From TrEMBL:
<keyword id="KW-0808">Transferase</keyword>
<keyword id="KW-0268">Exocytosis</keyword>
<dbReference type="InterPro" id="IPR013115">
    <property type="entry name" value="HisG_C"/>
</dbReference>
<comment type="similarity">
    <text>Belongs to the EXO70 family.</text>
</comment>
<keyword id="KW-0653">Protein transport</keyword>
<comment type="pathway">
    <text>Amino-acid biosynthesis; L-histidine biosynthesis; L-histidine from 5-phospho-alpha-D-ribose 1-diphosphate: step 1/9.</text>
</comment>
<dbReference type="GO" id="GO:0003879">
    <property type="term" value="F:ATP phosphoribosyltransferase activity"/>
</dbReference>
<dbReference type="InterPro" id="IPR016159">
    <property type="entry name" value="Cullin_repeat-like_dom_sf"/>
</dbReference>
<dbReference type="Pfam" id="PF03081">
    <property type="entry name" value="Exo70_C"/>
</dbReference>
<dbReference type="GO" id="GO:0005524">
    <property type="term" value="F:ATP binding"/>
</dbReference>
<dbReference type="GO" id="GO:0000287">
    <property type="term" value="F:magnesium ion binding"/>
</dbReference>
<feature type="domain" description="Histidine biosynthesis HisG C-terminal">
    <location>
        <begin position="44"/>
        <end position="117"/>
    </location>
</feature>
<feature type="domain" description="Exocyst complex subunit Exo70 C-terminal">
    <location>
        <begin position="379"/>
        <end position="757"/>
    </location>
</feature>
<dbReference type="InterPro" id="IPR015867">
    <property type="entry name" value="N-reg_PII/ATP_PRibTrfase_C"/>
</dbReference>
<dbReference type="GO" id="GO:0000105">
    <property type="term" value="P:L-histidine biosynthetic process"/>
</dbReference>
<dbReference type="InterPro" id="IPR004140">
    <property type="entry name" value="Exo70"/>
</dbReference>
<keyword id="KW-0813">Transport</keyword>
Amino acid sequence: MRAAGLHDIATLLNSQAVLIRNRHPSNPTLVNLITSRIKGVIAASRYVLCNYNVERQNLSTVVKITPGRQAPTVSTLDSHDGWVAVSAMVESKDIARVMDELEGAGATDIIVFSMSNCRADRKRDLARLDEDSADLAFLQTNLDKMAGLTEKMVGMLGSFDDRLVNLEASILPIHKSTQRLTHLADNIDKTLKAVDNIVTYLDLVNKEERFITKGPDQENILPYLKAMARIKDALEYLEGKKLKACEKVMGQMVRYLGTIRMKDAEDLFLDTRQLLKAGMLHLETLFRKWLTAASEPIDPHVFVRDNDTPTMSSMYLQNLSQLSQYIFSSESEIGYAVDFTKPYIDIRSVFLVKTLQPMSQASMLIERNPGSHYERGSSGFLKYMDCAVKMFKAESNLAAKLLPNPTHRLVGFRGAIQPALTELVGMGRQINASIRRSGTHAEIFMLFDVLDEYGREIRELFDEVLRTAQKKEDEVQDLINAFSATAVRSFVEFLDEAKGKKDKDAALSTDGTVAEVASGTLNYLKRLLDWQDIVEVILLTLGDGNWSTTTLTGVPELLSLSAPARNPNAGPAIVKHYISDVLDTLVVTLTLRSKSYKRAALGSIFLLNNFNHIAKQLRSPSLSAAADEDMQAKFSKLVRKQIDNYQESWKPCVENLMDVTYVKGGALKTSLGNSDKQLIKEKFKNFNTEFEDMWRAQKSYAMPDAELRNQVLRGVKQVLLPLYSRFIDKYQSMDFTKNPAKYIKYDKDQLERMVNQFFEPSA
């Protein structure tokens, strides 16, 4: 069909063939034949031919897998008993699945072919087969030619083999002689190089003499260290060779160093390790210079302000570290040990002392300003301690870098910090003694601050520093224990002060205002709560209630604070107990002092002012947390009691306004006898005298609390004014005297104005 120019089979597969007219009506068989062949081609394009081998016992199973368009062709395999070969048609779209199923059913040698029943295709295949046969014939001819050439080449190679055997027998003796000569030449070269190396070492003295004796350049020490290394290598090499010619050179090395006496040749060889001593001395001197230059005192306030750690200049640190490491590593090789301990201690101890000196001086301000109000964190000594421990920690890091020898490092670090540590502890002892001598409690809060901060942060740093220094005596902890003893002692002392022992001879205030002992006690208690954490620890160390039974002589000079209580309520409870005991003691002290006033009213005013001040302070935020309701109620009750006592002092005055109304014959008695008139005059006179005396005295009394003053005067007026009003209303219309103004000096409003002038010094 292709030869006839018809469409491709692929096109036909997608076309609908319609027979329009038979060109040969007389021969319908040809048309049917063509149509049948076209149908066969179309049908065959959807199928492939699948050939496989299978055991006969599985034949029925696999035949069901490949039913095909026609029944499969089955033939027996002679080479395998019980096996058959099967050829079946399978649709192209199912071939993948069918192959998997066949393999699962035991089929082998599965081969798939495309199908074609086109004669043109078979003709083309036959033509291609003819071409392939011709190619094979040509290749066979060439192969025969190559076989002949190969046979000739084998003969030639055999001839070459024989010739090479003869050549080897001739050249082998020559080769062995050449190897011996080559080895001899190599030995000569190595010997020449070794001799040249020895000559170089022998000449090294003359080359390096001037450079070594001059000393290192401070700006660039590396060339000097390299020269030292070259000399060290030369000495080790010459010593290892033990050549007689080396003795003279070693003598020259020792001589130019200028530090070793010339010796006999036999002794010089034993002392060759002294060769580098001069160079090492130069390096030691350079180390001192660099360390001194890098140890200029610095301003400690800078890194305290920036919360930084003091460090050495990176340039100096790098140079000193490299230099010390080189010297340390060279000690065992040279046999000369350089001990930097003493210069390190001398230089760095002065640096630490001078750097910390401003802090030390600032911490003494407490002695120059006794009694000043201390603010948390303002302690110069606290900053001094913080600065010192940071510098000690930095010094530990520096010693680790500059002193590679562990023994030298320990001794150097310990010696460097000791003078500064001694001065720190000495200053702390001076401050502690100053606080104990001061007799006031303003400075004790500085100790609370120091103890609090030391326990929070500084102690851990000091412990680390002292462990590094391996110090057996802990001077810092002894100082803290002395501070702790003073702090514990202060609670016992303050309770004594609340008893009034310290200022028992102090003059009482003339106006009954709040006593200094009361205001001072409350201020002290409020400030205690600012450091409640450390106060709890101190009181727990003292023991609950022991502040009342312990004497000052019973407190040791050194006292270690107890650990915080495991019970979280123990600390606040002991603080409340101490405050309660102090206030109870203060009440007793104030009550005793009030009895020193000649006027009972002034004593009542004195207690009223003090108890009211205490009650208000206990309700303030600063003390309310430590004062429970019972304590507040207790002082409120004391205030009410003193108000009642004060009103009782008005009794002599108010009694004059009390009288008896007489009734005669069922009617009020309106006529007065001489005795009645005289009695009324006496009552007015006595009232005026008592009131005026109280007015003159009590208008100068003090009652700073306006609310309390109004409450007290309101109570007075509620009793006095109604009685006085009734009294004058009753008698001013009676003819008890010819001169009423002499006895009735004040009306009700005037009396009230005068009462309002009580406790007003400016009235």
